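Sample A.
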Amino acid sequence: MAFSAESTTDEVLSGVDLTGKRILVTGASAGLGVETIRALEAHGATVVGAARDLDKARRALGDAGVKDIELVEVDLASLASVRKAADVVVAKGRKFDVIIGNAGVMACPQGKTADGFETQFGTNHLGHFVFINKLAPLLNSPGRVVMLSSSGHRISDVDIDDPNFEKTPYSPWPAYGRAKTANALYAVGLDKRLKARGVRAAAVHPGGIQTELGRHLTPESLQELMAMRGPDAPKFKSIPQGAATSVWCAAVAPADAIGARFCEDCRVAEINDNERPRVGVRSYALDPAHADALWAKSEEMVGERFPL
């Protein structure tokens, strides 16, 4: 069945039985994470939610009708928290069929994570890099990893020589672009390392959605966003529409079709290196050599190697 930008999670999963599937979703306390969990659970999956604030996650999930879910506490802006959470999950030894790296921050003021990394790169990329890599041995074959990137990757390529803006002036949107490109490249690198054992990884642009992700937006940064989107930008999606591509990649799309690819509007995106229209994926976000360079730099930054 063909889906579109207007397809919702329940439409994408219509007729799909996920009974027996075990799925982990980060960012389980708001927005797309809550809707992704709700939809997957409603279609039979057993879902584990990861969130920084478990009380907030329980309230949000409860309000969405998810009453009984296993939660794990993880602050992606702290590698100590990430490693502790991963150790807790690994110690239980229960396998996963899918991991969805949904959590993130967007266009926030300049800051640093607990480990001294630029906030957006450290949280969106490095936190997931360590967390998911540590959980990768738990993935069943076949299995999938879905990383939420964004059309924001089109703003900027990742700067492997200056990931923390130590040599260049900080700006919220270029920093977001770098982090979202890193999410896409991480999926490429992960797919390369895991596909031989039947695990495929893909990146997702959910669409423009008004959620808590925009909580750091000032009037100035919102104006800048609208200017970047331009008159040809797709219209904003509802949250069920925004989470649809995540569940499509996780449970519906053919695994070989999405492996190491970038997906949007419930389909594989085409490469588009033109400035307009702002659709598709930039070629630098899918480049295997670039993905390997980012992998090596990420290992260097977190002080840990992941020979998956």
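Sample B.
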Amino acid sequence: MENILEISGICKSYGSLSVLKNLFFSVGQGEIFAIIGPNGAGKTTLFKAMTGESLANAGRIVYAGEDVTSKQAAYRVAKGMARTFQVARVFRDFTVLENIVVTIESRRRTAGETPGGFFSIRPSEEILVEANALIDEIGLANVREKSASLLSHGDKKRLEFLVALALRPKILMLDEPTAGMSPTDRAKIARLIKDVQKKGGITIVMTEHDMDIVFGLADRVMVLNYGELIAVGTVAEIRANAAVADVYLGKEMYSA
């Protein structure tokens, strides 16, 4: 499997606090790669370094064959990297449809395409067709014209997921995609992630605290603790790893 993301010796610190400590790992094209670990392990900081939200202090990040270590987030997004956040970030005053329309327009302008009409006047018919098709596919048709500020927590998370998909990414970075959700909503998001990966072949990197979600979706799992890499492997290998049981999973999940 060809690697789409290669992390070599990444370090990140804030003043005297070392958060990421010399991390080495890779993510294969088309796989679902999960990053787990206790609170404070460095998962979100690693996400910020990988996506360019906060540049690493040392090391190298190669994405789709290009060294992007010093590139800002906007550059990485333009190259096909998209992410979601623990707390959903959407245009709260826009409807669901408007959120997707402006995302598609932005993607097309960034790619040098002419999107036709503009959201501030009237979106082109082509963009409206694409936006509505995405909304229908993800299951948000019943709230299409609803303001994002009025959506339930679960629907806000699904909308953010949809905004990321509207960018047509090569790699989708999901930071706690089921955080704060009910069991029903968590199951819906898990199905969405699996369906998107299967249909589009998108590479997915995710952090997640729900081990049922992780073990049900991931091809491989990486475990962090206090910024250090403890283990990388298949679900079976991680379940059988005594060091992982000690720092995170607990004895009840060890070799379960």
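B remarks: The radius of gyration is 19 Å. Confidence is low (pLDDT under 50) at residues 251-256.
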